[in-house]
Amino acid sequence: xxxxxxxxxxxxxxxxxxxxxxxxxxxxxxxxxxxxxxxxxxxxxxxxxxxxxxxxxxxxxxxxxxxxxxxxxxxxxxxxxxxxxxxxxxxxxxxxxxxxxxxxxxxxxxxxxxxxxxxxxxxxxxxxxxxxxxxxxxxxxxxxxxxxxxxxxxxxxxxxxxxxxxxxxxxxxxxxxxxxxxxxxxxxxxxxxxxxxxxxxxxxxxxxxxxxxxxxxxxxxxxxxxxxxxx
Length: 231
Fold this sequence. Notes:
- This protein is of the alpha/beta class.
- Helix 6 links the parallel strand 6 and strand 7.
- It contains 7 helices and 8 strands; from the N terminus they run H-E-H-E-H-E-H-E-E-H-E-H-E-H-E.
- Helix 1 packs across helix 2, helix 3 packs parallel to helix 4 and helix 5 runs parallel beside helix 6.
- The strands form 2 sheets. It has a 5-stranded parallel β-sheet, with helices on both faces. A 3-stranded parallel β-sheet has the order 7-6-8, sandwiched between helices.
């Protein structure tokens, strides 16, 4: 439910931004009756399909609520990124060139980062459900709406502030992604060291890795009782 509410709020924010962008384009005449078209690039298939399904359902609900009693004010056109950056870019090009959307919402970090230059080149706005806290730093036309790595790190470490550390053995398994690697080196490991928390297992993995058997065996041999998985 929280996920759905968050996405609904994001959609309404996007609606407002899209309206501003729409009014600024000289080639478009002001017309209150014209439908604002929103392109939504979601992971509807692939490894993150479960998340994409929730996002699509929530956006559809938001669309229904916005249009209720007012006629069609917004129209959401869904495209499948297949949880892949290249497919996300193809979806963005279709939405911009064929569907002529007024702005785009993108989901997942990899897809959002790949889609960003395409959307900006078309002089449109982008709402990114993206963990990278820097995606919106260099453009007012990009807004980030998501729990990022910094917020996630703060939340995870707050747990360890309130438990007895005597018997804790932490394992950290993290993806080889620059932002995540930075969080492990600059936040997680210094925190555990400062609080005298044992971390006998710290390993990275490639995002394409599908076999974690050896790593699991190692964790088991080290008697890990708290495992942090980042990626």
